[in-house]
Specification:
By secondary structure, the chain is of the alpha/beta class. The chain folds into 4 domains: 136 residues, DNA polymerase beta, N-terminal domain-like (DNA polymerase, domain 1, Orthogonal Bundle), CATH 1.10.150; 89 residues, Beta Polymerase, domain 2 (2-Layer Sandwich), CATH 3.30.460; 70 residues, Beta Polymerase, domain 3 (2-Layer Sandwich); 237 residues, Metal-dependent hydrolases (TIM Barrel), CATH 3.20.20.140. The protein is built from 23 helices and 17 strands. Strands 11-12-13-14-15-16-17 form a 7-stranded parallel β-sheet. It has a 5-stranded mixed β-sheet with strand order 2-4-7-6-5, with helices on both faces. The termini are far apart. The structure holds 2'-deoxyguanosine-5'-triphosphate, calcium ion and zinc ion. Zinc ion binds next to loops. The site of 2'-deoxyguanosine-5'-triphosphate has 13 residues, from helix 10, helix 12 and helix 13.
Length: 576
């Protein structure tokens, strides 16, 4: 029985093969969209296919539905078989390596006889790739690095994909009359940007009932292991989830243990040994007497060790234990601290909501303001704005603001820093805006010196308030361009430019560690949704979580200011 992720992977593979074969781009894109839709569905696609109802899903037309049905009933797709007569079976895998597209794949296959990832790596290490037309020593070195990174990250999923499924499972268990506490643990609770598997800790009057109910959730594709107090399942989205049920009296110890991180727990135990205590998932033991205190709450675990309560996002053995021992843990930013969203797209560029729609959804999330930040003209594929269209948009925003009560729309733009380092719109267009974000969407492969020259020149412009998604990395998809983060932070500090934590679940850029370094250097951060549809306002939660993992306090973040406070800041030159 194929999982949704397997079906999606097959469609993706078909799309990759089509691309290798030089097929029509619209056909390729349609297959990828369908694959994405299927991978994200939290019900059995196989069952839907059996009922002949696949076309009820968005992004799935008749032709693709027929292919999925064929796969579900016969276990194969004839079209895929045809391709496998044409190309070696593992050749398409090459395209998963960053920097390798269909053209290079064909080149290394035809010129060097490379037909798999292993063979490609061997050829690159043997210096054969550098000799091909259009390649070179540098490309070859980058290729080896990219293959290594691809191997490292396989098997982990972005938090933003996992969290909704994990929370749905926890909520379903909480609704059962038998359950007392149900909590997510592990990396999901620490809000780590990628997750290997989901850990759930629960207490219940009847553990057996709870594990049975867990195994029977509609999202479950397969039960991997089931016992009276433990159960592991795999979901239709190919995610493993482990449930552990404990007695109420040591719930705190168990939760603390399985929240991790492993590094935090090891350091905690070492610290405890010095106090004559032994910490485990069952409780805290006094080594001298052998007495064990089972802890009902996590607060108790930390209190008994003489520590302030450590928020899960900080538990990475990155200084949090020392801080907790000396009362110096930071007061972390929380979601309600966010008062506005300064990077929001609308249907004037590639967004799918009107300006009003986007304002309404932000308002419903408790924001007092947004800055409409559509793309600029050079991003033609995203419907970027020319100076003339920008001017029309400003009039429209003016009209909406005139009729609004309490909510304010700042004018703004996500201006492209073009590959040659210039900004995409003339200064006098941009000077008129309240909040200008600039970002890089091209020239990703430039050398560090060139990338930094582009970013620095932009930050030196007095009207540039923020750098959007500063490193450009996409989690599990694309590495950052060559940003020197230390230099970026130093220049941001010197020029008074804010750095963004972009909350899109593929981005989370700046990441936790970089955000922390920025705060230490006195740089202001902004936590933005980069919303393209009204529903994306929910992204902010992930951005705030990233900030918390980076020890970020409310005062560091520009958009925790009220609309009046922010207006005042934006009236003054930046950095004052
Ligand atoms: P993940 O699943 O790789 O995204 O990250 P975690 O932190 O959820 O790791 P996981 O699922 O292996 O274990 C959950 C927590 O349980 C971990 O943070 C610390 C704790 N833990 C308990 N026993 C062990 C053990 O034997 N090995 C490791 N690595 N962790 C353990
Ligand atoms: Ca885990
Ligand atoms: Zn962008």
């Amino acid at each position: 029985m194929p999982s949704n992720r397997q079906i999606a992977a097959t469609l993706d593979r078909l799309a990759d093969l089509m691309e290798l074969d030089g097929a029509n781009i619209y056909k390729i894109v349609a297959h990828r969209k369908a694959a994405h839709r299927i991978a994200e569905s939290n019900f059995s696609i196989e069952a839907l296919a059996d009922e002949g109802r696949l076309t009820e899903l968005p992004d799935i037309g008749e032709k693709i539905a027929a292919k999925v049905e064929e796969m579900v009933t016969t276990g194969r797709i004839a079209e895929l078989d045809e391709y496998s007569r044409k190309f070696p079976p593992d050749l398409v895998d090459l395209q998963r390596v960053q920097g390798i597209g269909p053209k290079t794949t064909r080149k290394v296959w035809e010129e060097l006889g490379v037909s798999s990832l292993d063979e490609l790596e061997a050829a690159a290490r043997a210096g054969q790739v550098a000799g091909l037309p259009g390649m070179g020593k540098k490309t070859e070195a980058n290729l080896i690095k990219a293959i290594e990174r691809l191997r490292e990250r396989s098997g982990r999923m972005p938090l933003g994909e996992v969290l909704p499924v994990a929370e749905e499972a926890a909520a379903a268990l909480s609704r059962l009359p038998q359950s007392h506490h149900v909590t997510l643990a592990g990396s999901v609770r620490r809000m780590k940007e990628t997750v290997k598997d989901v850990d759930i800790i629960a207490t219940a009057a009847d553990p057996r009932e709870l594990t049975r109910a867990f195994a029977n959730l509609p999202m479950v594709a397969e039960v991997i292991a089931a016992g009276p107090t433990k159960c592991s399942i795999r979901t239709h989205t190919d995610l493993q989830m482990d449930l552990r049920v404990a007695p109420d009296q040591n719930y705190g110890s168990l939760l603390q243990h399985f929240t991790g991180s492993r590094e935090h727990n090891i350091a905690l135990r070492e610290m405890a040994i010095g106090q004559g205590l032994k910490v485990s998932e069952y409780g805290i033991e006094e080594t001298a007497s052998g007495n064990i205190h089972a802890c009902g709450t996590e607060e108790e675990v930390y209190r008994r060790l003489g520590l302030d309560f450590i928020p899960p996002e900080l538990r990475e053995n990155a200084g949090e234990l020392e801080a907790a021992a000396t009362g110096r843990l930071p007061e972390l930013i929380t979601e309600p601290d966010i008062k506005g969203d300064l990077h929001v797209h609308s249907d004037w560029s590639d967004g799918r909501g009107t300006i009003r729609d986007m304002a309404d959804s932000a308002r419903r999330r408790g924001c007092e303001y947004i800055a409409i930040s559509d793309h600029s003209q050079s991003l033609a594929v995203a419907g970027g704005l020319t100076p003339a269209r920008l001017e029309r948009q400003l009039k429209e925003i003016g009209k909406i603001n005139a009729g609004a009560d309490g909510f304010h729309i700042f004018t703004g733009m996500e201006v492209d820093i073009k590959a040659d380092g210039s900004l995409d719109l003339p200064d006098d267009s941009l000077e008129a805006l309240d909040f200008v974000t600039v970002s890089i969407h091209s020239g990703f492969t430039q050398e560090r010196r060139q990338i930094m020259a582009r970013l620095t020149a932009a930050m030196e412009k007095p009207f540039v308030r923020s750098i959007g998604h500063p490193t450009g990395r996409l989690i599990s998809r694309r590495d950052a361009y060559e940003v020197d983060v230390d230099e970026l932070i130093a220049t941001a500090a010197r020029t008074g430019t804010a750095l963004e934590i972009n909350s899109h679940y593929w981005r989370l850029d700046l990441c936790d560690l970089h955000a922390r370094a920025a705060q230490e250097a006195g740089v202001r951060l902004v936590i933005n949704s980069d919303a393209h549809t009204p529903g994306d306002a929910g992204n902010l939660r992930l951005g705030v979580a990233t900030a918390r993992r980076g020890w970020i306090r409310r005062e560091t973040v520009l958009n925790t200011l009220s609309v009046t406070e922010l207006s005042r800041v934006l009236e003054s030159p930046k950095g004052t």
